[in-house]
């Protein structure tokens, strides 16, 4: 269905975040995987904003996709030291949210 003004506002704010993050990842962090990931997000969001359709789907998808990120970063950056209980919990939560979100929730989300 058609996107609501609220969905368009959320998408615009998210689009701004991803564009700023692309510059950060490109020029400061030199993290090319994140640049590619964020570029695909930007292209998808521009497509949804341009067509004005299915805003709720991409908002839900982005939420599900980013839900597992803090747990990934916690053990990837060493915030949860390798071999610790905190790292094990973070890895477990990341796996459950990543797989559950993409295979579970992602499977049932489809445009009507």
UniProtKB/TrEMBL annotation:
Transmembrane segments annotated in the record for this chain = 12-29, 41-65, 85-105
GO cellular component labels: membrane
Where can this protein be found? Answer: Membrane
Entry-linked Pfam families: TRAM_LAG1_CLN8
Say if the entry is tagged with keyword Membrane. yes
Domain called TLC: residue spans: 9-108
Q: Which UniProt keywords apply?
A: Membrane, Transmembrane, Transmembrane helix
The record's annotation in InterPro entries points to: TLC-dom, TLCD5
* Membrane topology, as annotated: Multi-pass membrane protein
Indicate where this protein is primarily found. membrane
Domain of life of the source? Eukaryota
**Stated name of the protein:** TLC domain-containing protein
The organism that produces this protein has a lineage beginning with: Eukaryota, Sar, Alveolata, Dinophyceae, Oxyrrhinales
């Amino acid at each position: 269905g058609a996107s609501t003004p609220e969905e368009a506002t959320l998408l615009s704010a998210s689009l701004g975040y991803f564009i700023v993050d692309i510059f950060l990842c490109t020029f400061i962090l030199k993290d090319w995987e994140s640049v590619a990931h964020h570029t695909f997000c930007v292209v998808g969001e521009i497509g949804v904003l341009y067509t004005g359709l299915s805003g709720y789907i991409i908002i839900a998808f982005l939420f599900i996709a980013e839900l597992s990120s803090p747990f990934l970063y916690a053990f990837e950056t060493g915030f949860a030291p390798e071999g610790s209980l905190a790292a094990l919990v973070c890895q477990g939560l990341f796996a459950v949210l990543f797989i559950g979100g993409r295979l579970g929730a992602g499977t049932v989300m489809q445009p009507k």
